[in-house]
Structure formats: structure tokens, C-alpha cells
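Trying the structure run again after the queue cleared.
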Amino acid sequence: MINSIKLIIGSLLLCSCAGTIHTVKHDNTQTVYKKAIIISAESSNYISFQPGAIISPGVYVPLFDDPAAEKHEVIGNTDMVIKQELEKHGIYAEIVKKGEIAEEFDFIVGYYDTWRWDFKQILDKLEIIFVSPTGTLLAKSTYNIYKNKELHNFPSPEKEVPKMIKELLGK
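Done. C-alpha cells:
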């Protein structure tokens, strides 16, 4: 019985540590989008591992505040996950490199990702923006890992992008 209670409490604690998503739509019109251009990131941001101390089982305290994120080669496949999610919602999406010229599209998708190490690379922050062909910001969604970064559910683009795209599209 006690083990069951510990398991339930532990599960609730880990599930509640997934992080937060904040989405703001700047264009409230119900536009039907058919084609998007995704600007593939040239690099990712990376926060180096920080030494810390384990003060009791399951409680890790870093010795220093998070350092600034550093530029790093692209981590993960965020652009592909965004493409797949848009296409699930009936929007054709094309991935291009920054500076490439694309024709006939309804909006541009940009993203910025920050990663950290915790037994494997985990998503610390992800920002996805929708911009009109004229350069007007249509919507922005930001995922941030839970404040206590040591308790998380190993966030990744595969877990967070579907929720973010759904909010960005207002579905």
C-alpha cells in the first residue's frame, strides 16, 4: 500500500514537472493556412552541465546558476517535427535554409531551441513563431522546462511541438 502511494505521488510529481507552454496570437482572424515555409535553424543553443550536490535521495542542487547558453551545432530534428505537425493539420510545409527564396506561402515558421544535458540531451526552451509573408508577427509559442530543472519528463520536440502547434493554430 505504501509503495503504491509513493508510486502515485512520484508519478504526479514527475508529470507536473513537464514544463510550461505560453502562446500568444497577434492575429485573431480565423485564417485558413495552406502552405508554410519553415526556416531551418543554423545552430542550437546549449547549456553546459553544472556540477552540484545531492543533498538527499532525489534532490540535486546545482552549485551555480545556469550559465549562458552557448551556440552549438543543430541538436535534434525540430524542423522535421514542426513539418510533420503542420501537415497533420492539413498545412503543406517546406523546410528551407535561412536566406533561400521560397514562393507562394501563407506564413513563415521560425524556431529557436536551447538544450541541456541530463543523462541525454533534453529540451530546455523552445520558441516557435509564425510570421506573415510581409514580416508581421502572427503568433508566438514558448516552451520552458519546469523551474526545478532537475525534475522533468525528458522533454523533446516530439513531446512539446504537437502541443505548441495546436495552440498556435488555435485548434
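Residues 11-16 have pLDDT under 50 and may be disordered. Worth checking whether this holds up in the mutant runs.
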